[in-house]
Design goal:
This protein is α/β, with parallel strands linked by helices. 40% of the residues lie in helices and 14% in strands. The chain is built from 7 helices and 9 strands. The strands form 2 sheets. It has a 7-stranded parallel beta sheet, with helices on both faces. A two-stranded parallel ribbon has the order 7-8. The N terminus is likely disordered.
Length: 265
């Protein structure tokens, strides 16, 4: 699949879209897709070189994107400063796609409390802090959308991948979606979640899809018979961010090839 389909429909024309974690994978695909649909993309990442490459790709395709910013999304002050600068420049945010996250896998008898807390900082705090910081700007837009990123791990367990902390954090994101949707409805903010299954990205290629990992053969257990691509998740996020989903809020859209819908085998 490509990050630049041959047509543009303008579903986000004139919108200001903030995307976290744009250096690679789903974040890069989102920046390209949202810009292709007319949004001005404002992105951040700890990997500033990768983020700059994403911005270059957006501009090369004719899209609009501001220079990427290096933001530690676990740092409350840094996130607040970023949001304040965006507010000064634009006065509103129409779309917030809280894509950034990082995880560490371990079974319950091996995970340290330090790593447990690390997971929550890098999968829950990195969602909460941007949502809270940008909330007033989302209210200012009057009709805005937030898209969070959950996971099949947030709704199912796994006998193949020991991931207690990851399950807890992504379950939290799914739950946050529903509460934020309730709190945002009267303010004109729709909040939804995409929950990917196994998606081919640089991170999964180096970990879950590596030759020596038991998840390597997972495609055989996915009803559609293959691992997903980043663009397939982003297409769903784009729908939820657009006016096509104007009557959709509080939903968790599974993007997993049917993996979570069936029993193994």
């Amino acid at each position: 699949m490509t990050t630049t389909p041959p047509h543009r429909t303008g579903r986000l024309e004139g919108k200001v879209a903030v995307i976290t974690g744009i250096a690679s994978g789903q974040g890069r695909a989102a920046a390209c897709a949202f810009a292709r649909e007319g949004a001005t993309v404002i992105g951040c990442d700890l990997d500033l070189d990768g983020a700059a490459a994403t911005i270059a790709a957006v501009r090369a395709a004719g899209g609009t994107a501001e220079n990427a910013r290096r933001v530690d999304l676990t740092d409350e002050a840094a996130v607040a400063a970023w949001a304040a600068d965006v507010g000064t420049a634009h006065g509103r945010v129409d779309v917030l796609y809280a894509n950034a996250a990082a995880t560490r896998f371990a079974p319950v008898e091996e995970i340290s409390f330090k790593d447990w807390r690390w997971n929550f900082r890098h999968e829950v705090d990195v969602v909460f802090l941007p949502v809270r910081a940008f909330w007033p700007l989302l209210v200012a837009a009057q009709r805005s959308a937030v898209v969070l990123v959950g996971s099949t791990a947030g709704v199912t367990g796994s006998v193949t991948n020991a991931r207690l902390a990851h399950t807890a954090t992504k379950g939290s994101v799914v739950a946050m979606t529903k509460q934020l949707a309730a709190e945002g409805a009267r303010k004109g903010i729709r909040v939804n979640c995409v929950s990917p299954g196994m998606i081919r990205t640089p991170a999964t290629e180096a970990d879950l899809l590596a030759e020596d990992h038991p998840m390597r053969a997972i495609a055989g257990h996915i009803p559609l018979g293959r691992v997903g691509e980043a663009e397939e998740v982003v297409s769903c996020a784009l729908f939820l961010a657009s006016e096509e989903a104007s009557y959709v809020t509080g939903t968790n859209l599974m993007v997993d090839g049917g993996w979570s819908a069936v029993l193994p085998g």
